[in-house]
Write a structure and sequence with these properties.
This protein is α+β, with helices and mostly antiparallel strands. The protein is 30% helix and 24% strand.
Length: 158
């Protein structure tokens, strides 16, 4: 009985051992900030990342890279941060909520933009779409495209 108990203890220790081959899908701090990160990755022009912070002061951080999205992003070309009003943040949050109701889109292509959205509005969510502006209505991506347009508008009007 004593040997059997020792065997069970050893078995449970070995069975719970971590293998160290865990894949990190995103930064664990993402659960705290930002509430969204949208990456626009065109094949032949500058990639752009929009980030919106979760806590006051609400910030929209727009980072533009030098390289081409489909190849080498290179370094940061520009990084700008603007403070969002309560109304802008509320509108953005509402648009994000709508954009998170995405369809199961299967469109793929060789060249074109890939848009990636990570959000922690409710729980961590990540999705990527190839060329969302291609047959947007047919693919059910209207809210996704509206969210990107609003982020672009906010980043350029201030």
């Amino acid at each position: 009985m004593k040997n059997f108990s020792i065997f069970l203890i050893l078995l449970s220790i070995v069975g719970c051992k971590s293998t160290g081959s865990t894949i990190e899908y995103t930064d664990p701090s993402f659960y705290l900030q930002p509430v969204l990160k949208m990456k626009i990755v065109p094949t032949f022009s500058n990639p752009v990342i929009y980030e919106v912070t979760r806590h006051k002061p609400y910030l929209l951080i727009t980072t533009i890279y030098e390289g081409a999205g489909g190849y080498d992003w290179k370094g940061i070309k520009s990084k700008e941060s603007i403070e969002l009003s309560e109304e802008q943040y509320s509108n953005l949050e509402s648009m994000l909520e709508s954009a998170l109701e995405f369809p199961k889109d299967k469109a793929q292509g060789m060249d074109g933009d890939t848009w990636m959205l990570e959000s922690s509005l409710y729980q961590y969510t990540a999705v990527a779409f190839w060329e969302p502006e291609y047959q947007t209505d047919k693919r059910g991506l209207e809210n996704f495209v509206k969210l990107k347009s609003y982020l672009t508008q906010l980043s350029t009007e201030n």
